[in-house]
Specification:
With 207 residues, the chain is mainly α. It has helices spanning 3-18, 22-34, 36-68, 71-96, 112-125, 127-140, 148-175, 177-180, 183-206.
Length: 207
């Protein structure tokens, strides 16, 4: 595993963690509803769920990919199609101003354990990390070259990338509730998300 590959992995994670999605929306909702510590706990659960999908990709997909042959192209098309759908929804949201339904109802007071479990469940049921770890990671990174040492290093990279990005959103939600709810800010975030998802879908298809 080369330094360049680890940096590529870190850059891909940055895109995954920074672009708005259900997980970020839920962390912001937790911040606005119960405060930053609940949101941080929820984010920790999300990270654990992400680690599950990454571990599954590392331990199983290299062998599966060798056996699938041309069917791997189908998996790439499915992944790119989902990313294109996410891009479309982001552009549609920016155009119409339509907002997704909140992950948590207003006034929802979940306990610490329930908040953490809900965070773990988010990436386990959310197609975004599933597509990323099971399709994009094997397409860009040689899974067969990942050793136990590089696997641990990549998990540490996940933590290093996740903590500041989640902290940014939580702190921003805690300190600037009104600013985050303005249509202009939300529209800009939607457009950025749409552009990033479109670019990743194209890279996945043609790389």
């Amino acid at each position: 595993m080369t330094i360049e590959t680890l940096l590529l992995f870190a850059g891909a994670l940055l895109v995954l963690f920074v672009t708005p999605g259900p997980g970020i929306a839920a962390m912001i909702a937790r911040t606005l509803d119960t405060g930053p510590w609940h949101a941080a706990l929820y984010g920790s659960g999300i990270l654990l769920g992400d680690m599950f999908w990454f571990t599954l990709a590392v331990t199983g997909l290299s062998t599966v990919a060798q056996q699938l042959g041309p069917f791997w192209l189908v998996a790439k098309i499915v992944g790119a199609s989902y990313l294109a759908w996410m891009a479309f929804k982001a552009f549609w949201s920016a155009w119409t101003g339509a907002r997704p339904k909140p992950v948590f109802k207003a006034g929802s007071k979940r306990g610490w354990i329930a908040t953490f479990v809900a965070g773990v469940a988010m990436p386990l049921s959310n197609p975004k990390p599933i597509v990323f770890y099971l399709t994009l990671v094997p397409a860009f990174i040689p899974i067969e070259a990942i050793t136990p040492v590089s696997y641990v290093l990549m998990l540490l990279i996940m933590v290093v990338m996740a903590v500041p990005t989640a902290g940014f959103y939580i702190a921003a939600a805690h300190r600037a509730r009104t600013w985050l709810s303005t249509p202009a800010v939300r529209r800009g975030a939607d457009i950025l998300t749409g552009l990033v998802m479109t670019g990743i879908a194209l890279l996945l298809l043609f790389r």
